[in-house]
Amino acid sequence: MKVDLFSIGPITVHGYGLMIAIGVIAAYLVGEKRARKLGLNPDPILSITILCLIGGFIGAKLMFYLTIIPEIIADPSQLWKTADGFVVYGGIIAGIFTGYLYIRKKKLPFFKYFDLVMPSIALAQAFGRLGCLLAGCCYGVETESRFSLVFPEDSYAPSGVRLFPTQPTLSALNFLNFFALIFLAKRVKADGQVAALYLIFYSVGRFIIEFFRGDIERGSIGVLSTSQFISIFIFIFGIALFIIRGRQARAEKS
C-alpha cells in the first residue's frame, strides 16, 4: 500500500505502474514460452502483446467515459484526465478485438492464439491488481471483519478505516484463473475452449467481488454495477463459445 515506491533523480517509480509493467512482461514471456511448447510461431507474440496493451488501454478508458457521461457533459475537462479512471472490461473487450484483427491480418489460426493469449491476460491482471493494492484504488466497502485492510492517507482509498480487501482478492482470483487455465489447456477438446473458460471464470469472480467494492466511480445499470451487468453477457458468451467450439470439433472428427 504505497503509491510511490522510490525515486531516482526526477524519476519516481509508482507502485501501480511497476506492477502493470511486471504483468505485461510476465504475460509476454509466458505467451512466448507456451507458443514454442505448443508448436506455434512465437514471433507474433510481442506484436500481439503491444497491440492488445494499447487497444486495452483505449477500451478501458472509453468504457469509463461511458459510465460518467453526465459528468463529462457538465465538465468536458474530464476527458483530458487520462491518468486514472478505467473499466477493466472495456480493456478486455478492446484488447481481444485488437488481437483478433492482428491475428486475422497475419492469417494465423485465431482460436489457437486466442487460447494461447488468455491465460497470459489473467496473469497480467493478477499483477495489475497488486498495483491497485499499492495505489489504493478499486477499494472495498467498509467492514468490521479482521479480513480487511487499512490504507494510509496518501492512498486513493479512504484512510484509517477497515475496508474489504478487494484488490488482493481479485489478484488471487486472477492468479487462480491463470493456473487453472494452464492446467485445463492440456485437457480441453477444442481450440477456443481455454479462452471460453477464461471468460466464464473471470465473469463469475468479477460479478461476486463487485458486491464488495466501495469505490463509486464505476457506473451502474439498475441495481447492478457496470461490470456486473457486463459479466452476465460475458458469462453467457463464454458458455456458448465453449459448447459451440466443442460441437465443431466433434463434427470435424466425425
Keywords:
7% strand, two-stranded antiparallel ribbon, 6 strands, 254 residues, mainly alpha, 8 helices
Total beta strand runs: 6
Structural class based on helices, strands and sheet pairing: mainly alpha
Query: What gross morphology would you assign?
Result: globular
Q: What share of residues are in beta strands?
A: 5-15%
Write down the Rg.
19 Å
DSSP helix fraction: 55-70%
* Number of helical regions: 8
Average pLDDT, to the nearest integer? 90
Strand order of the largest sheet: 1-2
Q: What about the largest sheet?
A: 2 strands, antiparallel
Number of domains: 1
How would you spell out the order of helices and strands?
EEHHHHHEEHHEEH
> How many angstroms does the end-to-end distance come to?
56 Å
Low-confidence blocks of residues? none
Written overview of the protein:
This protein is mostly helical and 254 residues long. It has one domain. Helices cover 63% and strands 7% of the residues. The protein has eight helices and six strands. It has a two-stranded antiparallel sheet with strand order 1-2. A two-stranded antiparallel sheet has the order 3-4. Helix 6 packs antiparallel against helix 7. The radius of gyration is 19 Å and the shape is globular. The model has no long low-confidence stretch (mean pLDDT 90).
